TrEMBL record, chains A, B:
Pfam families: F420_ligase (PF01996). Signal peptide: none annotated. NCBIfam families: F420_cofE. This is Coenzyme F420-0:L-glutamate ligase. InterPro entries: F420-0_g-glutamyl_ligase, F420-0_gamma-glut_ligase-dom. The lineage of its organism: Bacteria, Bacillati, Actinomycetota, Actinomycetes, Micrococcales. The keyword Ribosomal protein does not apply.
Length: 261, 261
């Protein structure tokens, strides 16, 4: 367990264009040490990977990126869709976003953020000789609580959970269900230096080297809870309406049987 | 926007007993500077405030702390209740927890975590002369994602949101809906040095002084989204069952009207 760590924003990165060699650009922009964890805003990975479409195609892009609609809400002039996207992440608009995208365009999330993270970790480890971990972050809202936090949508070379199951608390009692999602905590911490508008898309986390590991550790996909095990797999209104239809139909069916007897 | 900050665990605090002067103990345990944010595990505040009951009374304590049941799930030999507690926080078992509690007891959350945070901020500011912010943290699970993160359940003297609404991104477009919950991000970051079992219940965050402010800033209660505005105010099964009953009853009522005509 670290007693101290620091987080520093990486300044001076150029605007990222399609095909950019992000690993080389990041390695050149800052000193990187063994055990560092680099938190990279997924937007610049999307740009480097050319995951960009015309703004006019935004609604279609959201539909294309959507695996499953979880909830939706109408507001003045539109509908917000909370969906599970192809990456397994549940969030608004499938991560399709105009902010920090070139004018007239929207950015999609990387196709496979864990694979992108692994490529970056491999590249930066090779270029610097430093054993680093990589987390790709995105800004996401959440149920029950206002505002957004940055969370890990891709990871490589870093433990996404600190598995305390089986260990004990300070008084010796087992911590049976505790499994902190350190990747999400690190992604959120990095937002505090990266911000949304400051042009600082990368942060270096130093002092948490005990969380850095092999490149074949489970990625951020392992954070996603399968829908069938999720108590909140569907919005309350959507679930209510589904139940209402089923209950109504069941009553009608029973009445039809009774009438035919 | 900070370019760098650090988080350090405060070691050497004594075991906290009922009536302990936490502000004095924390001020004595570490150097505190202007602009520091202290993240304090709510458990030690509960202990100082005597929020402790016999383990045999755990189920009753959960019921007493519960304002509203959001969802529940049966598992081998028990039921997990996800509830909104008196503090407005939605989580498992209303925050009633045996870990790090004295043997045979369970800890309840502080009655009013924002008030506790305000008292600590007032006390530590008076003792040290340093303008500090205080965040009380608790470990909470969440929908959609496995594992837990530490979140802010109490706050004083610190902005809980960094309100970017109305500001612009790096390319000049308005960030219309972005409002990072910095208090939650800071609480999660502090977990990375505090851990669950290391006996380090306080962390000092240095370098985010721009988020420190007056003692009358909105507390962590302002993070809670009112249920009526929450798409996930009720578990999917609970909402489905409620809809099913209503749909069934409506069909029966319609049939009764038809039969009487």
């Amino acid at each position: 367990m670290a007693v101290k760590f620091s987080i520093e924003g990486v300044e001076g990165l150029p605007e990222i264009a399609g095909g950019a060699d992000l690993a080389a650009l990041i390695a050149a922009a800052t000193d990187i040490e063994d055990g560092d964890i680099l938190v990279i805003t997924s937007k610049i990975v999307s740009k480097a990977e050319g995951r960009i479409v015309q703004a006019a195609d935004r609604e279609q892009a959201i539909t294309d990126e959507t695996v499953r609609v979880v909830a939706s809400r109408e507001f003045d002039g539109g509908v917000t869709r909370i969906v599970e996207n192809r990456q397994g992440v549940i969030g608004a608009a499938a991560g399709v976003d105009a902010s920090n995208a070139p004018d007239g365009t929207v950015l999609l999330l990387p196709i496979d953020p864990d694979a992108s993270a692994r490529a970056l970790a491999t590249g930066i480890r090779a270029l610097t000789g430093a054993r680093v971990g990589i987390i790709l972050s995105d800004t996401l809202g959440r149920p029950w609580r206002e505002g957004q936090t940055d969370l890990a949508i891709g990871a490589a070379g870093v433990h996404v959970f600190e598995d305390l199951r089986g260990s004990t608390d300070a008084s010796g009692k087992p911590l049976s269900v505790t499994m902190p999602c350190v990747a999400d905590e690190i992604a959120g911490a990095a937002e505090l230096v990266k911000g949304k508008s400051s042009g600082v898309p990368v942060a270096v986390v130093r002092g948490l080297g005990h969380l850095v590991g092999d490149l074949d550790l489970p990625g951020a996909r392992s954070i996603q809870r399968p829908a069938e095990r999720d108590l909140f797999r569907l919005g309350a209104d959507e679930a209510y309406n589904e139940g209402y239809r089923d209950g109504f139909d069941e009553s009608q069916a029973e009445a039809a049987v009774a009438a035919s007897e």
